[in-house]
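batch_manifest entry 22 of 60
target: TetR family transcriptional regulator
source organism: Pseudooceanicola atlanticus
requested by: lab member K.T.
priority: normal
notes from requester: please return tokens only, no post-processing; we will run our own comparison against the previous entry in this batch. if the run fails, retry once and flag.
--- input ---
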Amino acid sequence: MVRATQGSRKGSWRKDEIIDAAAECFMERGYQATTIDHVAARLNATKGRIYHHYATKTDLFFEVHRVGMEHLFEAIAPAETMQGTAHQRLNAMMVAHAKAMLDYHTYENVVAQGVQLHRFEQMSPEQRATLRELITLRDDFEQKFKTVLQQAMDEGSIDQMDVSITTKTLLGGLQWSIFWYRRQPNETPEHREMLARKMVEPFVKGL
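--- output ---
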């Protein structure tokens, strides 16, 4: 699913604004403590504005989760098809993933919360089915890294190792930034690019 860009039509940018505000609220308060009132207050709007697009808080949470995954897929797409060895593609995909975790910090925090909801929360059958679809997106994303890691092993640029465990360790290490990263005043995309490369460097050297 591709988000409509702001300004494409009036209803779309209002919906995007709701999603952005909800991502901030869910990151700050967590799923359980966040209410539609909190999101409305963040927007300085009425709850009706939100309910016009989303029937429940859970539906809104799922939308934030979905958009967060879209950002990750879009971020690594250029690196997947770049010229060079599989090892170089893996490095580029890891840097792109790390930077996306920083660029879309609020959204990726919600994605991580979604995994916990899938494991522990009581939901309706319909909600659980939707969440399973979102978890499948995460599995598909992970598979992209498993594929290129196996290719790097096959070409001999990386030693043979357990592909599944290695991939989970690599992605888990980069995703840990949701806990320690905080955007700084006057921070630029170039700053986040540099930080992303520093995050990836120890993993690349380890491989």
